[in-house]
Every structure is written in structure tokens, then in C-alpha cells.
Design a protein that fits this description.
This protein has about 450 residues and is mainly α. The chain contains 16 helices and 4 strands. The chain has 2 domains: about 15-220, no CATH class; about 285-440, no CATH class. A two-stranded antiparallel ribbon has the order 1-2. Mean pLDDT is about 85; it is low at about 440-449. It has helices at about 1-45, 55-75, 75-85, 90-115, 145-160, 175-215, 215-230, 235-245, 260-270, 290-305, 310-325, 330-340, 340-360, 370-380, 390-410, 430-440, and strands spanning about 130-135, 135-140, 250-255, 255-260. The two termini are about 45 Å apart. The chain is globular.
Length: about 450
């Protein structure tokens, strides 16, 4: 009985983790787009470019740059709405609307409670644990507030959205019922967090100091964990706090208080009075594995293919590599490791961590979290602020290292990578999860044709 209950709990947690991973992708996917627009705005305000010397062009670039930077300054409501909509099973628009309503109720409730109890701090709020969100002074919870309220909204919405009433009470059914139930919960939560969040902040501060004190080892460990957790979907719970919250530190850029290395780096990119990206930018190099390292892995797989399958495997690998290099979509390659040769995925995660550690040791500062398109869009406007050439050199070296290590492992251990023996195809995360949930052995007998 206990085993069944334990299994049920694990299943529910796994299902929730998968739903959360899908939900958080909605706000996450807008960040590269906003980043590219920000970089374009920076480009149009760079006086070294002739086009930027045209007054109207310069003005447009300034407006574009400052307007899209607001997204990185206000990530909390963005994540709140995005996660709620992403995790909602139905009526996603209603869930999104409820999320922003509950967000407003939360911040004004916390502000009122803190004001009534004389907890609000006057003057400069930097470093006090308090901050202004949409003009309202509350405890500085950063992007965590958006994540908490987004998940809470989705849970309430999914539980009550399909409950309808008849007659005069009809207005209070469905998504409106979810909102009515959510309002008192959020108000109570704001009071609880007023007293409990400072303790959490202390823990976050200690974690920040630990991360910083470990130097390049910490960067490498982050790179390893970010890759190795991908099959579980829990990598989002790692990189979101590190890149977008105070876990990785905070700072003031041109008078704007920001939390998280990614937000700080984007502001440093935007403001002309910043000469170089800050040291936290070393955490923004995880796309090295996407742009360079997987190229070496894919080439090793191709070189180890049985001769009669080379043409077919090449047709599979080229678009997969192209997607990884340009857009950072690594699923076809990485989940093929998990299907056919899990040891390669573990080695891949280790090497990815080592690659980031090397970047940290060499103090190479770039912004590259997705793929090549984003990398070019960010680093061309950055110019001397970043270490683009050094990063590319390290990336090329990583291609070579990956190629020889993967080729050695494939041939030495006789791993059944695509095109070897009973050839397999490239797999998706969905196929991996389906096989994993059913507890079945993975079918390696799928032919290329």
C-alpha cells in the first residue's frame, strides 16, 4: 500500500513538473525575441554606425531600446501571466486575465499590510530587501513572485474553471469562480510572505555568496546541472533563478536596479556608458553546447555510421545540427543520446559544464543563451563590451574535443547511435517521456527507412 501511495505521489509530482516546464516556456520564449529587439535598438543608437547619425533613426532606436528593456525590468508580471496561461488546461485567456488581476491584488495587499504595520522603508531601497513593482513598494521577490502567483493561479483555475452555476449565479461560475476563490488566498499569501520571505531572502543571499565564492567551479557545475536535468524538465527551476533573479546577484546599471545576471547584462548592453559586460555574464554562455559542442558530437556520430546508412543519417543530422546552432533547439540530438546511448548524454553534460568553466577561467563575457541568431544579434551591437572572438575560439576547440571523445566512446563501447547496426532515428522528448512513463524498454529496432 505504501509503495502504491509513494508511486502515486511521484507520478503526480512528475506530471506537475512536466506541466510547469511546459507552462514556463511561454514567458521564456519571448526573452530571445525581446533581446534581439533590444540589440537592434542598441545598434541604431551606436554613433559608430552611419545610419545612427540620422536623428530620426537615433530617436527610434532610443525609444525601441528603452521600451523593450522594460520587459527585463518587469519580468515578474510577465512570468505570472505566461505561466498561468501555459499551465491552464482550458480557457487559457481567462487564466491569463485572472493571473494579472491576482498579481495586482497581491502587490497592493502586501503594500497595504506593510504600510499599516510600519514596515515600509523610506528613501533608497537598493539592498534593503524591498523594491517597487509597477510603482508599488513591497518586498523584493523578483521573478519568484511571478512564478509563485502564476502557478497558484493555474492550480486554482484548473480546479474550478469547469464548475458552472445556473440562473442569477451564472456570472459567478467558471473562470470567475476561480478568481473569486483566488482573491482571498492571494491576500492571505501576501500577509504570510511579508513575514516569511525575508527568511527566504536570507537563504537566497547565502546561495548567491556560495555561487560567487566557488568561481569557475560554480559556473561549470551550473553548466553540468543545466544539461543533465533536461530530461526531467527541472532545468527550468535551475536556470530561471540563476539568470533572472537575485540568486546570481543584483546591481544598478545607469540608475536602474536589476536582479539576475541576464537582466543586468541586457541593461549593460543597452547603456552606452558601460564599457564591458559584468563578470556575471560568464553564466550566460550555456549555448556553447548548442552552437559548437553538439556539432562535434553530431560529426562523430556521422563518422561512426555504417557505410550503407551514411546518406540517410546525414539527412537526419544536418537539419538537427542546424536547429541547434541557429536557434538552440537541441532536442533531436540530446534525446537521441538518451534513447540509444545514455552514457553519451552524461558525458555531454559533463563536457558542457567543463566548457562553461573554461569560459569562466578565461573571463570571457558574452550573451549567448539560445543559439547563433541570438548570439550575433547580441554581440554585434555589444562590440568591445564582449569577448566574441575569444568565445568563438573556445567553441571551435570544444567541437574538436567533443568529436574525438564521442567517436572514441561510440567505437570503443560499440554504442548503437543512429546509423549503427539496427539503425535508429532521431528522437523527441515526447517519445522519451512516453517510453519512460510506460516503463518499457526503448525500441532500438526502428529502421531508417
Amino acid at each position: 500500500m505504501k509503495n502504491n501511495e509513494s508511486k502515486l505521489i511521484r507520478t503526480k509530482l512528475s506530471r506537475f513538473g512536466e506541466e510547469f516546464s511546459k507552462g514556463i516556456l511561454i514567458p521564456v520564449f519571448i526573452l530571445p525575441i525581446v533581446g534581439i529587439l533590444l540589440a537592434f535598438g542598441v545598434l541604431l543608437t551606436n554613433k559608430a554606425i552611419p545610419l545612427a547619425n540620422i536623428e530620426k533613426i537615433f530617436e527610434f532606436g532610443t525609444i525601441l531600446k528603452n521600451s523593450v528593456l522594460s520587459i527585463f525590468i518587469n519580468l515578474s508580471p510577465v512570468f505570472c501571466v505566461g505561466i498561468a496561461a501555459g499551465m491552464a488546461k482550458s480557457k487559457k485567456g481567462n487564466a491569463a486575465l485572472n493571473a494579472i488581476v491576482l498579481f495586482f491584488i497581491f502587490i497592493y495587499s502586501m503594500n497595504s499590510f506593510m504600510k499599516l504595520n510600519s514596515l515600509l522603508i523610506d528613501g533608497n531601497l537598493s539592498g534593503t530587501g524591498q523594491g517597487n513593482i509597477l510603482g508599488v513598494q513591497i518586498l523584493d521577490m523578483g521573478v519568484f513572485l511571478g512564478i509563485i502567483l502564476g502557478v497558484l493561479t493555474a492550480i486554482i483555475h484548473n480546479k474550478y474553471f469547469d464548475i458552472e452555476f445556473n440562473g442569477a449565479m451564472r456570472l459567478y461560475g467558471g473562470a470567475n469562480l476561480a478568481l473569486l476563490i483566488g482573491i482571498p488566498i492571494v491576500i492571505i499569501l501576501s500577509i504570510i510572505l511579508t513575514y516569511s520571505w525575508p527568511l527566504i531572502q536570507t537563504g537566497i543571499s547565502k546561495m548567491t555568496n556560495l555561487i560567487v565564492s566557488t568561481g569557475s567551479f560554480g559556473v561549470g557545475l551550473y553548466g553540468f546541472l543545466e544539461r543533465i536535468l533536461i530530461p526531467t524538465g527541472l532545468h527550468h527551476l535551475l536556470w530561471v533563478p540563476v539568470e533572472l533573479s537575485s540568486v546570481s546577484g543584483s546591481g544598478v546599471v545607469d540608475g536602474v536596479y536589476l536582479e539576475g545576471v541576464r537582466n543586468i547584462a541586457m541593461a549593460e548592453l543597452a547603456f552606452s556608458n558601460v564599457d564591458r559586460l559584468g563578470p556575471g555574464a560568464v553564466y550566460l554562455t550555456k549555448a556553447m553546447s548548442k552552437m559548437f559542442e553538439l556539432v562535434g558530437a553530431a560529426y562523430a556520430i556521422y563518422k561512426c555510421v555504417d557505410e550503407e546508412n551514411k546518406t540517410k543519417v546525414k539527412a537526419l543530422l544536418i537539419p538537427a545540427v542546424g536547429a541547434a546552432v541557429t536557434a538552440g533547439v537541441t532536442e533531436p540530438l540530446e534525446f537521441s543520446f538518451l534513447f540509444t546511448a545514455p552514457i553519451l548524454f552524461v558525458v555531454h553534460a559533463i563536457l558542457a559544464g567543463i566548457g562553461m568553466a573554461i569560459v569562466a577561467i578565461l573571463d570571457i563575457r558574452v550573451i549567448v543563451v539560445s543559439g547563433g541568431i541570438e548570439f550575433l544579434a547580441m554581440m554585434l551591437p555589444a562590440g568591445a563590451k564582449g569577448d566574441t572572438i575569444k568565445f568563438i575560439i573556445v567553441g571551435i576547440v570544444q567541437i574538436v574535443i567533443y568529436y574525438y571523445i564521442f567517436r572514441f566512446l561510440i567505437t570503443k563501447l560499440n554504442l548503437k547511435t543512429p546509423g549503427r547496426g539496427n539503425a535508429t532515428k532521431l528522437y523527441t522528448k515526447g517519445e522519451y517521456n512516453e517510453a519512460h512513463e510506460k516503463g518499457k524498454d526503448i525500441d532500438l529496432e526502428k529502421k531508417l527507412n
